[in-house]
Amino acid sequence: MEPLDRDLDETEIELAAEPMLINVGPSHPAMHGTVRVVMELSGETIERCDVQVGYLHRGFEKMCERGTWTQVYPYVDRCNYVSPMLNNVGFSLACEKMLGIEVPERCQWYRMILGELARLSDHLTCDGAMAMELGAFTPFLWMVKARELVWDVMEEETGARLTHSFGRVGGMAAPPTPGFKEHVRAVVDQIRHVMDEVKRLLLGNRIFLDRLEGVGVISVDDAVSLGWTGPALRAAGVPYDVRKSYPYLKYGEVDFDVPVGSASDCYDRFMVRIEEMEQSARIIDQCLERMPDEGPINADDPRVVLPPKDEVYTTIEGTIRHFKIVMEGLKLPAGEVYSFTEGGNGELGFYLVSDGSGTPWRVRIRPPCFYVTGGLERVITGQMVADVVPCFGSLNMIGGECDR
Amino acid sequence: MTLELILLSAGKALFMVMFGMNLAVIMTWADRRQGAMINDRVGPNRAVIWLPKRVAQALVLAPAVLIAAAVVGYVVTHKVEGAPRLGRALLFSQLAIFGLWATLLAIAGRVARSGVKNSFDAWVASIGDPRSFLWLGLGAHAVTLAAAGLLRGTDIGRTLRDVGASAGPAVFAAAVVGGAGYAAWSFERVERVGLRLFGLLHPAADGLKTIWKEDFIPPNADKFLHGLAPIVSFFPALVVLAVVPFGDTLCFGSKAGRIDLTQVMRVVPREGLCTEGAVPLQVLDVNVGLLYFFAVAGTGIVGAALAGWASDNKFSLLGGVRAASQMVSYEVTLGLTLVGAMMVYGTLRVDEMVRWQSQNTWGIFVQPLAFVLFFTASVAESKRIPFDLPEGESELVAGYFTEYAGMKFAMFYFSEYVAVVAGSVLLSVLFLGGWHLPFIDRSGIHLQIGDTVLFHQTLSHVAVIVIGVLAFIGKVVALCWLNLMIRWTLPRFRYDQLMRLSWRKLLPASLVNILVTGLVMLLIAGASASVQAGLKVAADVTQLVIAVAGLSLGVWFVVFVTSPVKKKRILASTAAQFAAHLGGTRTARMGA
Question: What are phi and psi of B70, to 5 degrees?
Answer without folding.
Answer: -60, -45
